[in-house]
Amino acid sequence: MIRRSLLKLANPQLLALVGVLLINWLLFPNFFRVTWQDGRFFGSLIDVLNRGAPVAILAVGMVGVIATKGVDLSVGAVMAVAGAVAATMVVAGYPAPIAVVAALVVGLLCGLWNGILVAILDIQPIIATLVLMVAGRGIAQLITEGFIVTFNDPLLIYIGTGSFFGFPMAAVIALVLTIIVTLIVRRTAIGLFIEAVGVNRAAASLAGIRSRMLLLVVYSLSGLCAAIAGIIVAGDIRGADANNAGLWLELDAILAVVIGGTSLLGGRFSVPLAVVGALIIQAMNTGILVSGFPPEFNLIVKAGLIFIVLVIQSPLASRLAPPRLVPAAKGTAK
Amino acid sequence: MNRSLRPLVATALIFAIAYALAVMQFPSMFSTRVLGNFLTDNAFLGIAAVGMTFVILSGGIDLSVGAVIGFTGVLVAVLITWVGLHPVLAFAIAIIVAGGFGATMGLAIHYLQVPAFIVTLAGMFLARGGASVITRDSVPINHEFYDWISDLTIRLPGGGRLSFIGLTMVAIFIIGALIAHRTKFGSYVYALGGNPVSASLMGVPVARTTVAIYTLSSVLAAISGIVFSLYTSAGYPLAAVGVELDAISAVVIGGTLLTGGYGFVLGTFIGVMLLGLVQTYIIFDGTLSSWWTKIVIGILLFLFIVLQRLIFVASAPGEKAQKA
After folding, report:
1. Cα–Cα distance for residue pair B310/B297, rounded to 1 Å
2. What is the 8-class DSSP label of residue B161?
3. Which of A167, A176, B155, B235 lies 20 to 30 angstroms, CA to CA, from B26?
């Protein structure tokens, strides 16, 4: 039953991804050409995987948050903080694994802070996470003392730009994370609990779900994912840029989740489809770049995409749609 | 005391204390020159924050404000410098374009029944992208009308001056306060923020009010963009990035409840001044880096959110008792 409804949801997003890739291929005939060079794959398609990985990782964390009817605006700033922590510690002489773990812990704590504001103080998620979004970049700059901290540590650079059996490390990390999180939410009851809290938190609590604990976990996971993405981005440019690392990526992550069919009103979510959403966004970015359009078109195309998704998701569309679709739409929404 | 007044009083007290402390450290901060610059430097933020106050009072949010400011700046600069229109005509066109833009967002929010933040997020992408497509460079504005306006200042005793754009902000705050607290539309906004369902049952025209709120916010953002172009004498597509966050912060620090329904336009004014004070203090100090601004704003934001929460929780039982 769940599998069937998943398949039903999967089609539009995967079709859209294939469509975007085909348009890219029409605009740029070499789009699908993948070559093997220096022990790794090269090509525009690989580039989509590699560049899309940070947003995909953010989207994995964001899915859970949005499924509980929340939103996490701070992920971009948390990326900057985590990158700053990792870079500064490596430069200060700590071994790279410790720096990575420290950055992950900092990300987890940032997420936990958001979770406490939302779950315990009962603050609206958009505002609770706004605090860290505004202050986070300041904190990151405090850590790096206003400089772009550059490093030459092999492990951090490997996380950002290395290859694993020829595939970009960033994409491999994103894939592993997606599989782990998907298994956790779909092979245990946690996913169901998240949906219950998203539909009606009060009712879920009365039904015995520890909704506070669940929210803390969900926001912590989002912080952790942001930290992973932050380390990848820092490793990619071999430095921590407190001002620009992850700038506006929270918006891309939210967009990826929404494209992936997760309802902004809570209660319906899919981790793999959010990752597909991130790939759709990146495929469009890459397509606009390789076909020679100015990158500014990106923003307009994204705006159009949000609008299309909103129209499809809206109650208006299900009223206008053929009657046989209406019960299905209602069934998945509730 | 009326409980919805409490956050306002708290903000005013914090501003007075913070300003007094700053003046004790740097006596020269207590001068008409600094106060005049407070108004001039924060004029565009203040005007945008008035629109944001209405949006947040109605329980919504508008993330497109900064992008609309940037877009308006570019549009005005292009119309004046490239097309050769008179600035007043360019201003009128920019305000009409922004009004249509805001109305479209309001229609989408109401009829598609989607959260305001995602619609205005799309609006932000569209406006920022549109501005960047028109031009990627800064377009300078050299027009005698601009020189004339920047010469329009009122000199104050002590070397300070009230600029035209500073006074525009004050005027818009006064008009905004009158609209919010003295008109039918204002009460509709409060009703919508309190509870949209009961507002609609009481006969509030929800669709019309929602469209009007977002139109107002975009029009004020456009005026803010015009003021910004007067301030910088140029239009730049990446101008005013993140101003929506400053505006939201100013509204929240000014005591408006984020769930909607409670708040004052005057509080937003104090919130804007408090943000201006933080920036001015950091400039006066000289040793603190500008990133402290962000951290201090974040801390203030947190304090006020928690404060609101505590007031709300503390007074909730009383409200229930009244209902019963």
Report:
1. 20
2. E
3. B155
Contact A138 B130 (CB under 8 A): no
Per-residue tokens: A272: 């793999």
Cβ-based burial of A40 (10 A; exposed 0-12, middle 13-18, buried ≥19): middle
CB-nearest partner of A264 from B108, B115, B237: B115
- CA A99 distance to own-chain centroid: 23
Per-position pLDDT tens, chain B of length 324: 566 677 788 888 888 998 999 999 888 888 888 888 888 999 999 999 999 999 999 999 998 999 999 999 999 999 999 998 999 999 999 999 999 999 999 999 998 888 888 899 889 889 988 998 888 888 998 888 888 888 888 887 777 788 899 999 999 999 999 999 999 999 999 999 988 889 999 989 999 999 999 999 999 999 999 999 998 888 888 888 888 888 998 998 888 887 788 888 999 999 999 999 988 888 888 777 777 888 888 888 888 888 777 776 665 544 433 333
- Helix, strand, or coil (residue B162): strand
CA distances, A205 to each of A111, A124, A159, A188, B32 (Å):
22, 18, 40, 18, 56
- What whole-number distance in Å separates Cα of residue A218 and Cα of residue A61? 8
Say if residue A109 is exposed, middle or buried (CB neighbours under 10 Å; 0-12, 13-18, 19+).
middle
The chain A residue lying nearest B295, using CA atoms, is A135
Distant-in-sequence, close-in-space partners of B288: CB < 8 Å, separation ≥ 6: B282
Find the length of chain A: 334
Q: Are the C-beta atoms of B250 and B49 separated by less than 8 Å?
A: yes
Contact residues, B window 239-278, toward A, CB-based 8 Å cutoff: 245, 248-249, 252, 258-259
**pTM score of the predicted model:** 0.85
Cα of B307 to nearest chain A Cα, Å: 11
CB B100 within 8 A of CB B216: no
With CA atoms as reference, report the closest residue to B120 among B251, B192, B213: B213
Q: How many CA atoms lie within 13 A of A191 on its CB side?
A: 16
DSSP B61: -
Q: Where does chain B have alpha helices with state H?
A: 6-25, 32-41, 43-57, 65-77, 87-111, 116-134, 144-151, 164-182, 184-194, 196-201, 206-232, 243-253, 265-285, 291-323
Buried b (16+ CB within 10 A) or exposed e, B167-183: bbbeebbeebbebbeee
What count of CB pairs under 8 Å joins A to B?
Answer: 122
Token pair of B239, please? Answer: 């101008």
Could you tell me which residues come within 8 angstroms of residue B188 by beta carbon, excluding any fewer than 6 positions away? B199, B204, B205, B209
Q: Which residues of A touch B121 (CB under 8 A)?
A: 251, 254-255, 306
Q: CA distances (Å), A231 to each of A78, A96, A104, in order?
A: 10, 11, 9
**Pairing status of strand B139-140 against strand B153-155:** unpaired
| Residue B279 DSSP SS3 | helix
HSE (side-chain half, CA atoms, 13 Å) at A83: 39
Chain Cα centroid distance, residue A251 = 9
